[in-house]
Write a structure and sequence with these properties.
Elements: H1 3-36, H2 39-44, E1 47-50, H3 54-60, E2 64-67, H4 75-88, E3 94-97, E4 99-101, E5 104-105, H5 120-123, H6 128-145, E6 149-150, H7 167-170, H8 184-195, E7 199-205, E8 220-221, H9 225-237, E9 244-247, E10 251-252, H10 264-273, E11 278-283, H11 287-294, H12 305-318, E12 322-325, H13 328-344, H14 346-365
Parallel strand pairs: 1-2, 1-12, 2-3, 3-6, 6-7, 7-9, 8-10, 9-11, 11-12
Antiparallel strand pairs: 4-5
Helix pairs in contact: 3-4, 6-8, 11-12, 13-14
Length: 374
């Protein structure tokens, strides 16, 4: 063996050893922090809640908060709240926002200069350099506010299997009917955000190809399984670039009687794309999901406790890791219900701990928290 070959072999061995050591150290960090949390605190990591006041977040140790326009009326106070809250929590927050651009543009409420941020519908016609420029501006603005998670991009198709425009296309939120070339555009958007400290969420798996708003009514897709699989392909193309996948509230009749978010087969398909990805529900307090659980066209003013608990069980049984809800008091009910369930049933305890561990790991790898070992 020549000296050159020996040097190359030693270099490769050194690199592999270094990577293994780094992975081992990371695992030790996860284990150390994970085992320091109570069962209730682990479950709380699974909740993304409409952002309440600081004391409420700290009291219940939520894992993530959802920021909407009202939160940004006073950006100085908002930033201070995020900073103070994170210093008081055992594990800092995922601070999430819907910043797609165009119609869904939370930054527009801060300053008029952000009102012209383009939609996916517009950006899909741009070159990568131009997309990169806008994504960087967006990321810097979000990061400056303390926001580290963007509920975008929308990877839903522009047309259904009959060629009719979808709800997401009419709303100009879709990046279009993507293929192995055009997917590079949302990928650029995602990568540019990531480089500046803002992670992304792909949505709405397996591809929202209905024509109605699933937030307000039970939306139905009658697409054949071949079309659904085709819509999934773009999620696969961006699989390792995006650490979160949000499940759709649409019901895909050729696959299941349940909305996608409650269907274990569809959630499993999402997990296969990227086993490390955190699988996120859409808002569980949305009228359509609660209506489907109750089996009624509309939901009651006082939603029955039994129906709400069934909603939670369906979400967990399907395999979702993080539950989004825009009703903070109900988030606390979820934590209490799941803690009681886990104490009674070891299978649920394992499910919940697996999801909490995955979320903790994602936070570490995305730089949300760093905790070295002494």
């Amino acid at each position: 063996m020549t000296k050159k070959v020996l040097w190359i072999c030693l270099s490769i061995f050194g690199m592999l050893f270094s990577n293994n050591l780094s992975d081992h150290r990371e695992t030790l960090v996860y284990e150390k922090v994970f085992h320091a949390l109570s069962l209730k605190e682990k479950i709380a990591q699974m909740l993304m809640v409409y952002m309440p006041h600081e004391e409420y977040i700290v009291e219940h140790q939520f894992g993530a908060v959802l920021v909407m326009k009202p939160h940004l009326k006073d950006t100085i106070a908002f930033k201070k709240t995020i900073q103070n809250t994170n210093t008081r929590l055992k594990i800092p927050l995922f601070v999430a926002i819907d910043q797609e651009g165009g119609f869904v543009n939370r930054l527009a409420s801060i300053d008029s200069k952000w009102k012209s941020l383009p939609s996916a519908y517009e950006m899909r016609l741009w070159n990568l350099e131009k997309i990169d420029s806008v994504a960087i501006q967006t990321a810097i603005a979000l990061k400056n506010l303390g926001i580290n998670l963007n509920l975008a991009p929308v990877l839903d198709p522009a047309t259904d299997f009959k060629g009719k425009k979808t709800f997401m296309e009419v709303s100009k939120r879709s990046w279009g009917d993507l293929d192995s070339n055009s997917y590079l555009k949302p990928q650029q958007f995602v990568k540019s955000l990531s480089k500046h400290g803002v992670a992304s969420v792909s949505k709405h798996f397996p591809g929202y190809d209905s024509w109605t708003n699933s937030d307000h009514q039970i939306s139905l897709s009658i697409s054949p399984t071949e079309q659904i699989q085709k819509n999934i392909q773009v999620f696969e193309l961006l699989g390792t670039d995006i650490p979160f996948i949000m499940m759709s509230s649409v019901r895909f009749s050729k696959i299941s009687i349940a909305p996608a978010v409650f269907d274990s087969n569809l959630v499993s398909k999402a997990k296969k794309i990227n086993p490390e990805a955190v699988i996120l529900t859409d808002d569980l307090w949305g009228a359509s999901l609660r209506s489907w659980i109750s089996g009624k066209k509309s939901v009651q003013k006082n939603y029955p406790k039994a129906d709400f608990e069934r909603l939670i069980i369906k979400s967990i049984d399907a395999g979702n890791d993080m539950l989004m809800i825009t009703y903070p008091a109900k988030a606390v009910e979820i934590i209490e219900f799941l803690e009681n369930l886990a104490q009674k049933d070891a299978r649920y305890k394992q499910k919940l701990e697996d999801s909490a561990y995955k979320i903790l790991k994602a936070k570490y790898r995305l730089g949300v928290w760093k905790d070295g070992l002494d």
